[in-house]
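Schema walkthrough. Field components (list of strings):
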Amino acid sequence: MSGEAKTSPKGGGFKFKVRGPRDFYGGLALIALAIIAMLASGELPGQHGFAFGPGTAPRMFATLLAVVGALVSLGGLLIDGPKIDPFAIRGPAYVLVAILLFAGMIRGIDLRMIGIPATIPSLGLVLSTFAAFMVSILGSSEFRWVESLIAAVAMTAFCIGLFVYLLQLPFQLWPAF
Amino acid sequence: MTDLLANLALGFSVAAHPYNLGFCLLGALVGTLVGVLPGIGTVATVAMLLPITFGLPPVGALIMLAGIYYGAQYGGSTTSILVNIPGEATSVVTCLDGHQMARQGRAGAALSISAIGSFFAGCVSTVLVAALGAPLTSLALLFGPAEYFSLMLLGLIFAVVLAKGSVLKSVAMVLTGLLLSMVGSDLETGAGRMTFDIAELSDGIGFTNVAMGLFGFAEIIRNLEMSQESREIVQSKIKGLMPTRQDLIDSSGAIARGTILGSILGILPGGGAVVASFAAYTFEKRISKNPERFGRGAIQGVAAPESANNAAAQTSFIPLLTLGIPPNAVMALMVGAMTIHGIVPGPQVMTKQPELFWGMIASMWLGNLMLVIINLPLVGVWVSLLRVPYRLLYPSIIVFCCIGIYSINNSPTDVVIAAIFGLFGYWLVKHDFEPAPLVLAFVLGPLMEENLRRAMLIARGDATVFMTRPISAGLILVALFMLALAMLPMIRKRREEVFVESEN
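Field assembly_structure (string):
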């Protein structure tokens, strides 16, 4: 984290150069979030009489967020700041897929609602845990087959032992047909 | 005084119950384990283990969760000293001098001093929690909605001031957290707010999902992109666990000062163990007669932050138990744990469930004792754990989190929401936004809005009520003062200095 002193003086052709891209784009995203919140709470009744309506506080805080976001953004425009670190794709992608896979497999999901003509049946805790472990471990740059399979089996067994036998939580263990 | 003793006696009778002793030991061990392993933070762990406490009796559950928090403070120092990688954010500064000591062959002394310092701090802060409990609880009874709102505002301001990085960006995070907390049904009218007609959102976004996403998944994603630095463990046999007489004399002052500083910073809303350890180290270096020794194996540089983080971890229970307001993210999770068991945190806990309140306090002292006894002999075991490569650790954390989140409501949607917050957290890190103020605001949000609305209704729409009621006005003035202070250029520089110190 240290030593990210801003260099890169390169003179682009732009008249307005974004000096602190982290703050500039971060602020813009916050403004976008505030606008979404305002749109989403726009229809809610506001203040009447002395009482706040359900929409009052969300709109109030969304407005504040937009203002602060704008200030952050403005700061990024005018004050030198570090560049945005490149976002990794591989690691996050595998982790994300693993988590989504778990969510889809544990109870089953109808993929047609997102436009894929297929359904995942309810596969139960054992297979979901194993699959999620294997997919997430693929995201590692030092992946090894044998070691990973052993670890996946061990972890699955540990989780079943803990959650199902020790804690007695109601889980469906195996696929339901 | 006799009251205090009687209460403590009640507490010890509860905590010494074999069942509760077991939970205390389990919490302390898990906490140490988590503290030792880099890459899993305390917040993520407490969030991960929340579902597990479902089936336990409430006292046992809370004793265990508390044990995890202060146990992690002990464990974190072990990794810092032996591997030069902080096991926890709270022991980042311990690396500086602790690892130097280890390289000079004084790992044993460093480990034992940090354990002794932690134990001393733990004892003092346990007494402090017990002593301050009653007066603060009676103070809480004077609080109306306006005061509660102002107090929470103060808490959020503190979180902003004490967070790392830009004040403005922390304010933005607080506002984001407040907004996110408003998703779901309105408390008074039941109207769905910002739910985008998604049925699963009508109950709001679950706190555990947010915490696990931002602190669990996001952290893993971020760790994955760092090259796996080889862990250079100090291999030589750790000999001479006992510190010398000179070591004890050298560090006694630092331990005392660290304890005091940590206790204060722990009570303050928004503070907590991380800030306490930084502050104690900086303070110790500043008052030292030979500051050049810091960074080269000064024993005070180990003693002060380790005492401070343990003291802070424990005193941060004070606002939670007396006022019902969590001062930091871990305490926010404790609120979640209490709610799961049907306990509303606040002044009424002490009067209605004295065995819970005092039992938890007594268990902290017992837990600290256990940690000293089990930790030092077990150093070898903890070190061997450090040899488990991260590539096997992180998939385990992921599946554990997934099962944990799913088991809370049997809801796959919760798992997806946590994944989204994981990506969001990764984005936040890339743009230097701190997730801690967001999480605190997310927990305080509903409480704040409720009290704001109530205060406004009672005052017949008169917003000056926050300034005309003396306690409320005092709290708001302190909040404004803190904010102004943090914005001042001179203080701002000092503030950055404190945080930068840890990174080089």
